[in-house]
Amino acid sequence: MSVSAGGILSASGYVVAQQNSTISSMLTSMVEQVRVTTGDHVHKGQLVAVLNDSLQRVSLSQQQSQLAMDRARVSEAGAMLVQSRLAFWRQSELARENLTSQASLDQAQATFDSDVAALKAAHAQVMMDQAAVQSAKIQLAETRIYAPFSGVVTHVYAHAGEMISPAAVGGFTKTGICDVVDMHSLEVSVDLNEEYLMRIHVGMPASVVLSAYPAVRFAAHVLKVIPVVNKTQATVGIRVGFDRLDPRILPGMQAQVLFYPAGVRRPTLIRIPTQAVHRNTNGKDFVYLIENGRLKR
Q1: Span 129-141, mean pLDDT?
Q2: Dist. CA 240–CA 15, nearest whole Å
Q3: Rounded CA gap, 167 and 27, in Å?
Q4: What distances in angstroms separate CA 204 from CA 93, 99, 262, one per listed residue?
């Protein structure tokens, strides 16, 4: 952290992706296919990996069979209820004419009440079976793993034939398929000494100089001041966003950020095509200019 004579603050940090993810599985299963490699561009919803689904298909078939069986029981219980209702009605008519005993009437009433309860229980069982079938379908769908957002695959962990699990089991399973980074969410994360906090505000203009391109200044601005002080280092986190993303900017790059206070103008940046930038044997970047009809480096 430094301060120039003109009041320009300077702090070091790293390029980070605000949106990145290790794509994993919610199941413990064997990997059958990994359909991406490091460096691939993926879009949201793209199939990334396929897991073995043998157990999930068997489970779904069992649940569907149970559902069909219990639906048949609903029909059976409904037919029995129709019969017991008629029997109870006949006994009630006979009882009015004193042509049957009270015991027979009570028995018909009990049978009717039992069949009503049995039909309700059968319907409840069907609802439980439907939920089980839906759960089995979800389990089967989870054997197909998709990208949660568009980005670039930065690392692949799992390969066909390996076991994968939401959590490591005895060190024999992988816990992730691959890492995906949204290259449109790149920004710079810096830690600023808390004594300079009052000089920083959201929207403040800044420039970013990457160690890989020391001669290039990328226009930027303060996105957010993290409202927490690291009491060990007495620093505050600052998120710095690029005014315009550039394909040369990559996650993990070391960066120096220059913060321009009010009254200090940020240097005007001249954008030139990447192809126009050359590099000499000393690793210095340069461009060719035409002055007075002559080529000048």
Answers
A1: 97
A2: 9
A3: 9
A4: 91, 98, 8
- To the nearest 10 degrees (0 to 180), the angle between helices 102-141 and 54-96 is 160
Do 189 and 159 share a structural domain? Answer: no
Q: What is the pLDDT of residues 229-265, one digit of tens each?
A: 998 999 999 999 999 999 999 999 999 999 998 766 6
CATH of the domain at 165: 2.40.50.100
Does residue 284 belong to any structural domain of this protein? Answer: no
Residue 271 lies in a domain: no
Tell me the residue range of the domain where 124 lies: 54-141
Would residue 12 count as lying in a domain?
yes
pLDDT value, residue 169: 53
pLDDT digits (tens, 9 = 90+) for 46-84: 999 999 999 999 999 999 999 999 999 999 999 999 999
- Of 58, 54, 51, 28, give the one whose Cα is nearest residue 145: 51
Render the burial of 232-271: b for 16+ CB within 10 Å, e for the rest: eeebbbbbbbbeeeeeebbbebebbbbbbeeeeebeeeee
User: Is the per-residue pLDDT at 37 higher than 80?
Assistant: yes
